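Q: My labmate handed me this sequence with no annotations at all. I'd like to see what the chain might look like in three dimensions before we decide whether it's worth expressing. Could you predict it?
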Amino acid sequence: MKTIKLNGIAFKLGAFLIVFVMVLIFCIEIILYSLFIRFYTDDVIDEQIMRSDSYASVLNDHFNESTIGHIIRIENATDNMLIILDKTKKIIGQTQGIDKLNVDDLKDVLSHDTKSHGPVLASDWKNESYFITQAPVTSGGNIIGQIIMFSPTKPIQTAVQTLRTTFVGVTIIIILLGIFTTLFVTGKIVHPLLNMIRLTNRISEGKHDIKLDTQGSDEIAQLASSINRMSTNIQFFKQQRNQFLADISHELRTPITYMKGYSEILLNGLAQSEQEQQQYLKILFNQSVHLQRLVQDLFDLASLEQKSFSLTFNRLSLDKIILNALNLMEIPIKQNEVILTYTPSAVPLFVNGDERRLQQVIINLLENAKSYTAPGGTISILVYKENESGYIKVNDSGVGIPQEEIPLIWERLYRVDKSRSRASGGAGLGLAICKEIIELHQGHIEVESILGVGTTFQISLPLLIKETTQNVK
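A: Here is what I predict for the chain of 473 residues:
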């Protein structure tokens, strides 16, 4: 271990850090101490006032011996003490322990006028043994009694003492750690470490405009390079996160706003006719379906991100998957006055896959095609074999996708036509999920589109050579 020079930067840095941290810890301790005292005492007093007012509220209606006895029994089970007075300041009920109070102090408390004093009669936890609050008992606008409650200040005094001891212990530990760190810091690494400290502080503030010098091949240079990469990645993921949160918040707000607005109309009976009421109910149902689909998509994306997306692989017929999807989508597509055609494979094609997830992909592609195809347009599905792969093509005669936006459609929450997609229920999550599902099946999904002509999605999956059944997670 190298000797630390008293005039060296390592020693100066260590001394500075110790002093700086001590001042910082001292300021934090003062703030925490003040906040603790304030919130603790306020909480205790507020709770005591609430209990006093609660009892007074009961006695307002039932100022009798039975009710007074019930209140006394409740408070006897607590650490508090309570006195109930009649309108002449005579004690007509008291909890255990009242006789231990100082007689002069008790007389002083009893002499307080309920009208001229507020609910708090004593709140000095340092010099007094109890927090004292009072609440008047009234009947017909006249004061017929008074409740005085005592709560011991001993717990807060004990807590404050423990807090002080903890602060002292933390301070000692900080000093020892500072001295230990100073002894092992050398001038050779102080400067780059200070630069790293400054940079990481700026990163924590959301600033990524400075890069560390990464010249050299030692551990310090490697650390500097890692911090630079970390800064770049944090900046990227922060932007992605903020954009994702903004987009998904907007997507959630839309159906919730619809549901709230139309439900208020129905609740307030503002629908003009039975037909209008049914129309509003249909809107509520559609928006709830949209919200359910969006939440499910978010759940799927979270599962994919956490590598907990479960797939159950079995021997499946591609044509069966398509037919199952068509059974669900045929009617909605025809209701949009869109012509739907299906050309199955010449020979049966089988893949090793998860039936529900592959069906989810086909349904999503059909939903997109339906949303962007005008009445009178066409949607076609073709299944065929090429080499050792099975292919599924979903083609539509819709509006198409601009060439510059085709690489972006796989991104989460990206929509080519945001206003139209949102109106039709899309949130820009489906294609991202489809791509992940197909890739988990060792397949590929591609898209070709001509603006104003239509779009074709093509899925390729490895065909099953022999029957296998396995679970993959």
